[in-house]
Specification:
The chain is of the alpha+beta class. It contains 10 helices and 15 strands. The chain has one domain: Clavaminate synthase-like (Double-stranded beta-helix, 4-Layer Sandwich), CATH 3.60.130. Helix 2 packs across helix 3. The model has no long low-confidence stretch (mean pLDDT about 90).
């Protein structure tokens, strides 16, 4: 997809050379009702997919408007007709915000719900929480958005890292080797969490007819092509990737540790965002990871929506981000 320039009337800045862009004055409510709404949202999708994550400050946006934007964003970016908004396996049925809204809450985290509780038992390193959303599904997320409406005076930042850049840091020989492999992603621990919290696991269709049941496991290529940009990205993450297939367990452990280290130990492939009230972040899960910072005691809460894209694939003729940008010059 090619950017048409419809967002150029808004000032923006890249937060690092590699990842992140912030717009000034761009409101979701306007995007949804503008005369050229489809063109602007399509350009927003291209921008998010190229820059990894986009930040919109001080949004007067309701959860219903977030759902509407996410639906249009993924549709205009070319998602399959069978893909919709994701329903998280741990979402309580009958929520007043709707099945497609996940409430991100420090109060829930204190009770030990979800991924945070699972990871808290395994490591004292904050970097263990790096992940991409719902990669345990056969059809995982393309775009996700989070609005934080309640936050502490300080702390609670979120970091994102570029999967494009991590691919570019592989040697050519390692890149070719990984392009022939798949990895198993699973979130079986959500079954235990659902039982512990007393909430039935959502086993029906979770936004795609391929996403259902209790297995919460999928195989995806280790290197993935983003269909919006045509760029290659590393596609494994600490939160859900358990095993690289086709190699021994020892080899899998070594490879995953190396790939995870490339993400967590390269701060120049990351962007760190300090939230203000009602800020909105929108990112592309196909080629990014993110990590919350749990360095606060006060209440921090927000709403998240995830759309579903395509089943992950690798197009061997696709290019790296660095090569593609060099060819534009």
């Amino acid at each position: 997809m090619v950017y048409s320039g419809s967002l150029d009337l808004y000032s923006s800045r890249d937060l690092t050379p590699i990842i992140g862009r912030e717009f000034d004055g761009l409101q979701v409510a306007y995007l949804l009702h503008a005369v050229n709404s489809d063109q602007m949202i399509r350009d927003l999708a291209v921008t998010i997919s190229e820059r990894g994550v986009v930040f919109l400050r001080a949004q007067a946006v309701l959860p219903a408007q977030m759902r509407a934007l996410c639906e249009k964003l993924t549709f205009l970016a070319g998602c399959p007709e069978s893909s919709g908004l994701h329903v998280h396996p741990l979402t309580e049925e009958g929520s007043e915000l709707g099945d497609q809204i996940s409430v991100i809450s420090s109060e829930k985290q204190k009770k030990g719900g979800g991924l945070t509780h699972q990871l808290s038992d395994t490591s004292r390193f904050a970097s263990v929480a790096w992940h991409a959303d719902i990669t345990f599904e056969p059809v995982p997320s393309d775009y996700a958005m989070l609005k934080i409406h309640t936050l502490p005076d300080t702390g609670g930042d979120t970091l994102w890292a570029s999967g494009y850049e991590i691919y570019d840091r592989l040697s050519p020989a390692m890149a070719v080797f990984l392009e022939g492999l798949t990895a198993t992603h699973d979130a079986k621990f959500f079954n235990d969490e659902a039982a512990r919290l007393g909430n039935p696991l959502r086993t029906g269709t979770r936004g795609s007819p391929l996403n259902h049941g209790v297995s919460l496991e999928a195989r995806h290529p280790v290197i993935r092509t983003n269909p919006v940009t045509g760029w290659k990205s590393v596609f494994v993450n600490k939160g859900f990737t358990r095993r690289i297939n086709g190699v021994t367990k020892d080899e899998s452990d070594l490879l995953l540790k190396h790939l995870f280290d490339l993400v967590t130990q390269n701060h120049d492939a990351q962007v760190r965002f300090k939230w203000s009230k009602n800020d909105l972040a929108i990112w592309d899960n196909r080629s990014n990871w993110h990590c919350a910072t749990f360095d606060y005691d006060a209440v921090r809460a927000g709403d998240r929506v995830c759309s579903l894209g395509e089943a992950p694939y690798l197009d061997l003729s696709s290019k790296s981000r660095r090569t593609a940008l060099q060819e534009r010059e």
